[in-house]
C-alpha cells in the first residue's frame, strides 16, 4: 500500500496528481483553510486533535476516518473536543493515538509531537505501508524558510510548542529503515524534503 501524508506546508501545492495516485491519503487539521491549493482531492483520513480553529467552512467529512493525535485520557479532559470529534465523524471510524504511542513519540522528540509527526506514527502502526509519501512537510525552524502553513503564518508560541528540527531528523531515520529506534520496512519518499541542517 502507498500512503500519502499531506501536511499543510507550501510544497504540497501542485502535487495533486501524485497525492491522489496513492492508495490512502491522510490530510492534516483544517487543510481546507490552511493547506496548499492544487494538492489533490482524495481524502481517506483526517488527522487532528479536536481543536476547532479553521473549522467554520469545513467540508462534508462523511465516511472519512478521524485520526486523533491525543491519547484518549487527554481528550476526555476536554469534553468540547470530544464532542467535535464525534459530531464530525458522523459515527464513522475514529482512531486514537494510544497512550504508549503518544508518550513514546514525546520522549523520542523531547516535546509533544506535531499533528504531522503523529500522522506518520499512526500510519506506520495502523496501515503498515510499503511506501510512505510525505507532502508539505516544510517547516524546520524559525531560522529556516517555510515556518508557516501554505496560507497562514504560525505564531511563535504555536510553533515553539514543538521541536520541528528533531522531528524532521526522526522522520529521516526512515531512509535507514528505522522508526523511533526500531526496524521499519516502510520506504520513505519525501517530496521536496527540507534542509536538514541544525
Task: Provide structural commentary.
The chain is an alpha/beta fold. It has a domain at 2-40 and 98-190. 31% of the residues lie in helices and 19% in strands. It contains eight helices and eleven strands. The strands form three sheets. Strands 5-4-3-2-1-6-11 form a seven-stranded parallel β-sheet, with helices on both faces. Strand 9 and strand 10 form a beta hairpin. 36% of the residues are buried. The model has no long low-confidence stretch (mean pLDDT 87).
Strand numbers in spatial order across the main sheet: 5-4-3-2-1-6-11
Q: Which percent band covers the strand fraction? A: 15-25%
The best one-word shape is: globular
How large is the radius of gyration? Answer: 16 Å
Mean pLDDT across every amino acid position: 87
Kindly state the percentage of residues in helix. Answer: 25-40%
Order of helices and strands: EHEHEEHHEHHEEEHHEEE
Largest sheet: 7 strands, parallel
Amino acid at each position: 500500500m502507498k500512503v500519502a501524508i499531506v501536511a499543510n506546508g507550501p510544497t504540497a501545492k501542485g502535487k495533486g496528481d501524485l497525492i491522489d495516485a496513492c492508495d490512502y491519503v491522510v490530510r492534516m487539521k483544517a487543510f481546507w483553510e490552511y493547506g496548499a491549493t492544487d494538492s489533490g482531492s482524495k481524502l481517506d483520513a483526517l488527522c487532528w486533535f479536536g481543536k476547532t480553529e479553521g473549522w467554520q467552512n469545513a467540508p462534508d467529512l462523511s465516511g472519512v476516518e478521524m485520526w486523533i493525535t491525543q491519547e484518549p485520557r487527554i481528550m476526555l479532559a476536554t469534553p468540547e473536543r470530544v464532542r467535535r470529534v464525534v459530531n464530525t465523524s458522523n459515527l464513522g471510524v475514529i482512531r486514537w493515538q494510544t497512550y504508549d504511542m503518544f508518550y513514546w513519540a514525546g520522549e523520542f522528540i523531547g516535546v509533544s509531537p506535531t499533528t504531522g509527526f503523529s500522522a506518520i506514527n499512526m500510519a506506520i502502526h495502523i496501515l503498515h505501508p510499503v511506501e510512505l509519501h510525505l507532502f508539505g512537510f516544510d517547516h524546520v525552524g524559525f531560522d529556516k524558510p517555510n515556518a508557516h502553513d501554505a496560507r497562514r503564518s504560525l505564531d511563535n508560541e504555536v510553533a515553539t510548542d514543538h521541536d520541528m528540527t528533531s522531528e524532521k531528523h526522526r522522520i529521516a531515520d526512515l531512509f535507514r529503515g528505522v522508526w523511533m529506534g526500531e526496524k521499519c520496512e516502510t520506504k520513505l519518499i519525501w517530496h521536496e524534503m527540507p534542509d536538514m541542517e541544525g
